Amino acid sequence: MKRVQFSGTPLPYFFVLPQIAIVIVFFLWPAAQAVYKSFLLEDAWGLTSQFVWFRNYEDMVLDADWVNTAVFTVIFSMIIAFASLAIALTLAVRANDILRGASTYKTLLIWTYAVAPAVAGLIGNLLFNPLIGSMTHLLHALGWEFDRASNGFDAAFMISLIAVWKQVSVNFIFFLAGLQGISKSVQEAAILDCRSRSKRFWTITFPLLAPTTFFLLVINMTYAFFDTFGIIDTTTRGAPGGSTQTLVYKVYTDGFIGADLGGSSAQSVVLLLMVLVLTAFQFRFIERKVHY
């Protein structure tokens, strides 16, 4: 059997060179710098530095504030991911059944995707304002003495609600596309075989959405870890007492405000490793239950 060989040309490499350069300059190089600086003890101006090996990492794991922030970040991310997925799936199922005015409903549910996290935080500030906020007045009317300024649970509830609202539209788009991609013949056969709507959904429809659900789970966890920075910065800024501070926001406050360059670099490296481990866990164990 004769082997077929193609003539080599550098043209494809030339086309991908700009993308490779962007990845190296804006991703790989800063990541390498963060790893290097995590082993240094520097002054606030970066003029002098001392190589201290793993001292920054030791100080970090022994810091109760960092441990509390890490625990809050994990719980916060899980709440955001599962709540936004559940709400989006419910809305997608309902919107998929609408025959008249479907485009209007879909547009109203999708357009929040265009809202930036910082803008979503500003909107949340108005809604939960202690004086004029409609959400605050509603919660007070329900008997909840809502106080985001001094109560950590109330502040966490506020940023969680804003973050979920911001992410629902993205999940809705993918879930709706997944539902519309299910064959009509499969849906008709399911109706004939099972008259229960809920049982039909959990045994037939939802398993067919497994690839979409798994993809969105990974995306939502990443969103909760990193993209909620703008929401927190425009609402609570980690208050009260750091109870709403996530790991990525702590990296910002310690590095840019506290001028602890070595400590914040160590935190960023650990945060990256946490996300990598979490993503690997999802692909290793959760993807096993996904049928493509």
Characterize the overall form: globular
Write down how many β-strands occur, each being a DSSP E stretch of 2 or more residues: 2
Question: In angstroms, what separates the terminal alpha carbons?
Answer: 35 Å
Number of separate helices: 13
Please state roughly what percent of the residues sit in beta strands, choosing from under 5%, 5-15%, 15-25%, 25-35%, 35-45% or over 45%. Answer: under 5%
Q: Using the coordinates above, name the CATH class.
A: Mainly Alpha
> Low-confidence stretches at least 5 residues in length (pLDDT < 50)?
none
Structural class: mainly alpha
CATH architecture group name: Orthogonal Bundle
Overall pLDDT level: 86
CATH superfamily: MetI-like
What do we call the CATH topology?
A: MetI-like fold
Encode the helix/strand succession as letters: HEEHHHHHHHHHHHH
Gyration radius, to the nearest Å?
24 Å
Helix content: over 70%
The major beta sheet can be summarized as: 2 strands, antiparallel
